[in-house]
Amino acid sequence: MLWGMRLAGPKATIILAVVLFCGAILSGWRQYHVDDGTAACLSAAQDCGCGLRWPPGVQIPYQIDAKGLPGLSLADVVTTVQSGFDQWLSVSCSLCPANDPGSTPVACAPHPLAVDVTLVGLVAPGPVGGTCVRSNPKTGQCVKASSNGNNIEFFTDLQQWQDQSGQSSTVYGLTVITYSQVDGIIVDADILMNAASHTFCLSPCDGNALCNTITHEIGHFFGLDHSQVPGATLAPTASVGQTDKCVVHEDDQAGICHVYASTCAPTAVAKAPQGGGGCQAGFIPNVAITWPWLCVLAVLLWRRSVAQL
Q1: I need a labelling partner for 200 at 20 to 30 A (CA). Which of 138, 172, 266, 292 fits?
Q2: CATH class of segment(s) 3-294
Q3: In this predicted model, what pLDDT tens digit does every residue of 147-185 receive, in sequence order?
Q4: Would you kindly state where each structural domain of the chain is located, as residue ranges?
């Protein structure tokens, strides 16, 4: 298997310009896919390859940065993060598993998601992204990757934020996903929060509500891209004081249900990279859900893509 890395979070000007140039605007929720950058994917969703998702029936461990956030107690930070995960895990789905990506599931009895998460500790976060543990000696391509722990990390130094995320000061948060380029299975996911440029507070508050950003980023953690639906949890931008994203919108509920009620047989190895920006402050029209990587042609082993707020 080949492995890729992807970011979730973007710059409004770049995203909007690329979307208009490529003419690739979709509606509603969207799942990340391993072949999002291929030319075939631009004309037919079924050619995008397997969608990114955690394997069914697994217990996903995650860790929270022990230094917490300025101005908030660590207990409140932990409670807000756990509430964000609970929002997604409490979605009740009425879909039966589909055999092929892109197929229409049939209605069946409601059921919870087939994944779960567990907070395993408060730590000093390790490296961002997964680690390649075995490569093809002839090609140098990674054939096996391992997790460094699924970390939620808080950055209070702007230079460190920019070095680790590659994003500007306007970006609220970023999600980095390491996954198999063959079948889309996620092996590692890290959420990075920019507390160097933004002050997070508890909801309701006049600043940047922590629950608004963290619940959005957790949607990326589970494999969802941005939504074009105004007011959706995965809508690409957020304004100061917004709390709409603290709960999972019905559009995002439909998306997460489809992701975890579908299976995917490995097809072909991804042929194109993905690139992107970050989840950021301010407001732009909700038009950006497939952006820079749709136009990129170069082939990379470790690929990064972003999701804006």
Answers
A1: 292
A2: alpha beta
A3: 999 999 999 999 999 999 999 999 999 999 998 888 889
A4: 3-294
